[in-house]
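Collaborator request, handled under Task 6.
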Amino acid sequence: MASVIPRNSEWINDSVVGFNPDKNFVTLKDGSKVHYEYLVLALGLQLNFHLVKGLIEGLKSDPRICSNYSIRTVGKTFPALQAFEGGNAIFTVPATPIKCGGAPQKIMYLAEEYFNKTGKRDKANVLFNTSLGVMFVVKHYSEKLYVIAKDRGIHVNFKHSLIEVRPETGEAIFKKLDSESGETATFKYDFLHVTPPMSAPDVISKSVLSDAAGFLNVNKETLQHVKYDNIFGVGDCTNIPTSKTAAAAAGQCGVLSKNLMAKMKGSNDFKSKYNGYTSCPLVTSSSKCILAEFDFTNTPTETFPFDQSKERRSMFLLKSYGLPPMYWLMMTKGLWHGPGAFRKIFNFWRS
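Structure tokens returned to the collaborator:
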């Protein structure tokens, strides 16, 4: 963290436990108060493993259960793949907003490829149990992803939300979200990758700053809080209606910096507006990727002059070797706010 904080900034190495927006201060875990003139909140999402019955215990005791979403559990994934000898390999998506909406599929495609390479595929029944009714929120990409899954023999179960795991019997219980009677389905598992339910951190969801769903309540275009005009928000903790990705945060930061500067100069007439741009590199193998880009309306806003809904090695190389330095060397220094300028250039060739 210290390596990316601006030199002239003070890093208070403590967590916030409360807000008092009427008196302009935050309370820290140690009990001290920090007063502010302006406040920017970028607290990310909270992982709620506890909302799935038996999951916390299962992650501790069952080597077949893993999750790439936590530093405490990601180390279990590859050993679980190595130990898998056949049976049901299940990948889940919860019925909540999540960070990087494509990640549950990425690990599934990579795992399926690994089973092929290690001679286990014929013994593997790969299942994608998702709370959504589609493969992806944008139709342009969802249809292609469904075809990929079908062609690779991956069984997709829509409207299935994980509610319980039973390590002692190797069972995962899913609520059928399209069942009016609350019907459930029980699956035996031999490998289980769980994407946990998520929410804004409790410190936001239990405060006056949140909306009814518990997310930071901001104007989706200006990023200013809807009630407290000296508070702004960016990233996953907000109720901005777009997919929660680093690409979205980059675009939002560009808008935020301009609008915050305008506010500090006494103006509420914000010229900079966020259009919902977000991007998700959907890795489908160890050499190919679909680069999804879209806006508030789930309309594709693709940068390159070709159909990005197709699996491409070029997009995999961009994801693997272009995006990491772009993040560390540009985005964290406020030098990258999205590919808008490049899109204008490349789209000239589209037309």
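The cover message to the collaborator said: "The first strand starts at residue 16 and ends at 20. The mean pLDDT is 97. Please let us know whether this matches your experimental observations."
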